[in-house]
């Protein structure tokens, strides 16, 4: 990260960009720093990182006391392996292109998702830009975080977790309410996306005021292999065991022992949870 930041800094300096730089200090510090910057009047906050760092930043901004926080512009310089939200905007790991787009400063109002839950002591609200995963998707995140200490490389940990859990095919007794429809049964994973949710909600648009939902029921082994291929191709919604919805609010009344994550950040598991969308709640610096 330090080597990459040095290259980014040198390129920004060569372009005459005026900026203040703050180094995050580990897990959770990006949220605190983004809140401090917003409260101190910064109107453009650029994140060098992936989906998790972006999630920290949007939570820091949305929880701040800043005036007109929807007008604080977020810029992205992708880093690491989890950059699904950046990929939606056709941003890749080529930092020079990302810096050029930030300098160009083309802005767009986008939606912010939220998740309400009770943590055992008080009611909480967390925000997301990409997606909420319940079940398999969140377990992959959880095991990746745990095994990263062993493997030392997050990408290897992610692959190990993916294969382990897909072949396990664990199901969760669930009860969801979507558009007044009650959905009950044994479900492998649920994705609620404002954006594409790592391919699980490929039709989602992060500025249309809606959430896309994909519910994946129990697949046979061969259906898992075909499902992975369809996921890569962006056609997962055509799979036999997938049911899709479009809504503005989802209530998860039960998902027995299922993990939950928002943009790769694990949520304390307390059901019921309510997932919704706030239209045009933040501003993003987007490509030309």
TrEMBL record:
One Pfam family linked to the record: YegS_C
Residues of the DAGKc domain: 1-120
- Bilayer-crossing regions: 150-167
> Would the keyword Transmembrane turn up in this protein's UniProt record?
yes
Kindly state one GO CC term assigned in the UniProt record: plasma membrane
Q: Which Gene3D superfamilies match?
A: 2.60.200.40, Probable inorganic polyphosphate/atp-NAD kinase, domain 1 (3.40.50.10330)
Q: Report if keyword Membrane is assigned.
A: yes
GO MF terms listed in the record are: ATP binding; kinase activity
Q: Which InterPro entries match?
A: ATP-NAD_kinase_N, Diacylglycerol_kinase_cat_dom, Lipid_Phosphate_FormReg, NAD/diacylglycerol_kinase_sf, YegS/DAGK_C
Query: What keywords appear on the UniProt entry?
Result: ATP-binding, Kinase, Membrane, Nucleotide-binding, Transferase, Transmembrane, Transmembrane helix
Q: What is this protein called?
A: Diacylglycerol kinase catalytic domain protein
